[in-house]
Amino acid sequence: MPQTTAIADTVHILQNRCGTAPEVAVVLGSGWATASQRLAEAQRLPYSGLPAFVGTAVEGHVSELAVGRLGSQRVAMLRGRSHTYESGDCAGMAGAVRALQAWGVKVLIQTNAAGSLRAGMPPGSLMLISDHINAPQRSPLVGVAGSGRFVDMGAAYDAPLRDHARQQAQRHGVQLHEGVYLWALGPQFETPAEIRMLAAWGADAVGMSTVPETILARHAGLRVMALSLITNMAAGLGEESLTHAATLDQAQASGDYAAQFLANLISSLPDTDGLQR
Ligand code: HPA
Q: What's the predicted TM-score (pTM) here?
């Protein structure tokens, strides 16, 4: 199905099933899944019934959109994202992001699991993403027409939304680190030599997602905020060897804490008019 048709059909389904769009959508990455259990009056729509959405087969992710409320804030939660390492296609989330924007969503909050490059940011830490490094230099906008594709990435992660996250962290006694997230294509983990190089580049955390979706969201005019849950020290910086199972275990161990912070942060978001740019 051509993407424009898939997006129009998806918006139609979302309007019929859920009515007007919430202002906020959240991508739940590894470890953040329990946030969706906090939704009140949740409607669950499998991606298989949303033509613009692509499912994921990665362990720890389901492929479902959950729409409901956190406090008085309506929110759409994407339980699972397709990763570039699954297919080689870095535009796997293009249809989903564009359908959410066409439905009326204004803010995309992304969450992920990441490895830490900072000694003072151990597993279990939360990091607010201040900026990113697109290390693979791949873009989901390749092939998109029009001058809109030359997206300004100078302030990709929205300053007022980051202020809000810092305020909420302070209010709830949560230690919130802030730093630069580097996208590594994966699926293999990095070598210690690569991590030393990436540290010299200015990376604070490394992970295999988020950056393509941030580019897509900025292209679609959405405001973006992103949070990393640190699941391990990056290669060569810790004692343990790296496995997906171990990162998922650590994500699960700190996931409730992360999900609680996320829920507080979202339920206290003023509407976007109140979050001045
Ligand atoms: N590297 C890449 N991706 C990751 C890591 C890591 O160390 N931890 C969690 N996701």
A: 0.94
